[in-house]
Amino acid sequence: MAKITREKFKTWGNVFDQFTVRNLFELSSKGHFEALKSPISIGKEANIFSAEREDGSLIVVKIYRLETCDFNRMYDYIKYDARYLNLKAKKREIIFSWAQREFRNLMKSREAGVRVPLPIHCKDNILLMEHIGGKEAAPKLKDAHPDDAEKFADKIIDYMKKMYSAGLVHGDLSEFNILNWNEKPVFIDMSQGTIVRSANSEELLDRDIKNMCRFFRKTGVKREEADVKKKITGKE
Ligand SMILES: Nc1ncnc2c1ncn2[C@@H]1O[C@H](COP(=O)(O)OP(=O)(O)OP(=O)(O)O)[C@@H](O)[C@H]1O
Ligand SMILES: [Mg+2]
Fold this sequence. Notes:
Elements: H1 6-10, H2 18-29, E1 35-42, E2 46-52, E3 58-64, H3 71-78, H4 91-111, E4 119-123, E5 126-130, H5 149-165, E6 168-169, E7 178-181, E8 184-187, E9 194-195, H6 201-218, H7 225-233
Antiparallel strand pairs: 1-2, 2-3, 3-5, 4-5, 6-9, 7-8
This protein binds adenosine-5'-triphosphate and magnesium ion.
The site of adenosine-5'-triphosphate has 22 residues, from β1, β2, β3 and β5.
């Protein structure tokens, strides 16, 4: 029996609506976690918490906010994804699909050999995944430049290639959505990830490449966008 009470989640009352509180309660009753700890990040669309499990280990709980999500932007992005072509412009349906898409993208990337947080469970607007880091969450790449920038850049390009070969494009890749954990990259924030055969995938890939080459330059690593693209896609 989980020790958690509904009251515990109500303390986050200003952050969560009743629907989310019920889902959090259900997930914790099923033994996924005992209690939410303080937030790691309050983002544009989602709040990220670490949560403690019964054995003291941590997981990450990503909660897409139902009230303040920019679901028009979400819909604009997801409507091109060949997996979601029949999606209607209904607010909740879009947010749930958005969370589910992140879960699927994490799973697919992991299977392709890309280091990402292991996705554990997805329920409506809530995604549970592996916590990257130790007691504290691992730093973002923007805040923790790598010691060996050349090697780190090549690993990132290798991961982009692995994703592409598995039919995926990250779609929001930058030093904000890569963690530096023990000098190795971990890709996160995959809700914008789309499949290669979607109409806008090339545009998203080009943007990812541009963002990464810009960051590489900041760390003294020269990589030409066209060369990187060729490496990833195998095409000129
Ligand atoms: N699995 C994880 N392990 C450790 N830290 C994480 C994990 N997932 C997310 N974080 C932390 O939470 C932050 C926000 O996560 P994420 O990028 O997935 O959400 P977001 O809604 O896109 O937020 P933002 O609007 O700030 O980009 C990350 O930058 C990272 O610092
Ligand atoms: Mg992010």
